[in-house]
UniProtKB/TrEMBL annotation:
SUPFAM superfamilies: YefM-like (SSF143120). Antitoxin component of a type II toxin-antitoxin (TA) system. This is Antitoxin. Belongs to the phD/YefM antitoxin family. Pfam families: PhdYeFM_antitox. InterPro entries: Antitoxin_Phd/YefM, YefM-like_sf.
Amino acid sequence: MTAYSLKYAKDHLERIAEETVENSAETIITLDSGQAVVMIPLEQYESWKETQFLLSNPANRAHLLESAQQYRAGQATRRTLIDPERTSP
């Protein structure tokens, strides 16, 4: 994770944004007030939002956590997905 002052970020915004996307890493911009904001790639933000959505429902959260626990315990079964467009009736 990299941090920049607001003044530096104003002068180099495009380069900082490109590096943030290229490195898939967060970039901190510190404001003159001492507060800070974080710049992240859109893909990463969308992934976090999807995770937050999936875990926001208690029943879905419990199911996902149970599935992850089963996987770690070696209780997962590998399956081959069938593409319905490639199979004939």
